[in-house]
């Protein structure tokens, strides 16, 4: 790990809690729509709508809100009252302003690492939403560069490497999603540190069995210090 110059961090569920807040809103949506189906039926309908919309909406709270509304229209056979649509919009607005709970050890670890490395945020989702979350987190000052990608594909990682002006082997990508943060980063020649988070959106589930000498798994954010030999 001696060559590392830049550490790029995923944000949602790596720097701060995200998925549990979406899961809670999904549960509330199921309650609101309970007369039209049980929890698993509504959740499945929502997931299908989200997957259909993924290509045009991308990720994040606004996409999620539009998909919740579309789900409500569909499962109610277009009989959902306007007042209920308003309730759903309010749930989406809550997600856009949700309190940011920085994960354990993140602040102290970033403070230490920022003395020796250039730190970058590399996240996917809606530009304004992700920027506002970073500001609310209080962590923005640790980072030299923020890259908000439409999706975390190999092509987007190659663009990130070009914009950082270093070789892929000089970058360590840190994140909680094998599918978004680890596989594509390894594929373009970066190093990757996987920090599992306790819950995962089913769209992001992937096989953990990785054989690659540029792959590292750590159990907690603060272990990045020992992985990189920083004291
Ligand atoms: Mg994440």
Q: What does this protein look like?
A:
A six-stranded parallel β-sheet has the order 3-2-1-4-5-6, with helices on both faces. Helix 1 crosses helix 2 and helix 3 runs antiparallel to helix 4. The model has no long low-confidence stretch (mean pLDDT 94). The chain has two domains: 141 residues, Rossmann fold (3-Layer(aba) Sandwich), CATH 3.40.50; 78 residues, DNA polymerase, domain 1. It contains nine helices and six strands; from the N terminus they run E-H-H-H-H-H-E-H-E-H-E-H-E-E-H. The protein is of the alpha/beta class and 231 residues long. 47% of the residues lie in helices and 12% in strands. Strand 4, helix 8 and strand 5 form a beta-alpha-beta unit. Magnesium ion binds next to loops.
Q: Reading side by side through the largest sheet, how are the strands ordered?
A: 3-2-1-4-5-6
The structural class is: alpha/beta
CATH architecture of the largest domain: 3-Layer(aba) Sandwich
CATH fold name of the largest domain: Rossmann fold
Q: Give the number of domains.
A: 2
Major beta sheet summary: 6 strands, parallel
Name of the CATH class of the largest domain: Alpha Beta
Which range best describes the helical content: under 10%, 10-25%, 25-40%, 40-55%, 55-70% or over 70%?
Answer: 40-55%
N-end to C-end Cα span:
15 Å
Bound molecules: magnesium ion
Radius of gyration, whole Å: 19 Å
Total helix count? Answer: 9
């Amino acid at each position: 790990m001696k060559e590392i110059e830049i550490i790029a961090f995923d944000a949602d569920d790596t720097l701060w809690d995200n998925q549990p807040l979406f899961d809670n809103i999904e549960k509330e949506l199921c309650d609101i729509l309970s007369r039209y189906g049980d929890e698993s039926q509504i959740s499945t309908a929502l997931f299908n709508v989200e997957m259909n919309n993924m290509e045009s909406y991308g990720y994040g709270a606004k996409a999620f809100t539009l998909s919740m509304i579309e789900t409500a229209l569909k499962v109610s056979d277009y009989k959902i009252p306007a007042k209920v649509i308003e309730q759903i919009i309010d749930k989406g607005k809550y997600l856009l302003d949700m309190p940011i709970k920085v994960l354990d050890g993140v602040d102290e670890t970033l403070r230490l690492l920022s003395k020796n490395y250039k730190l970058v945020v590399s996240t996917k989702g809606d530009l304004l939403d992700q920027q506002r979350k970073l500001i609310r987190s209080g962590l923005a000052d640790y980072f030299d560069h923020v890259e908000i990608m439409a999706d975390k594909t190999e092509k987007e990682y190659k663009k990130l490497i070009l914009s950082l002006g270093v070789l892929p082997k000089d970058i360590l990508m840190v994140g909680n999603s094998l599918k978004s943060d680890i596989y594509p980063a390894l594929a373009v020649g970066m190093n990757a540190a996987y920090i599992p988070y306790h819950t995962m959106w089913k769209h992001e589930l992937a096989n953990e069995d990785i054989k690659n000498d540029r792959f590292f798994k750590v159990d907690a954010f603060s272990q990045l210090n020992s992985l990189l030999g920083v004291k």
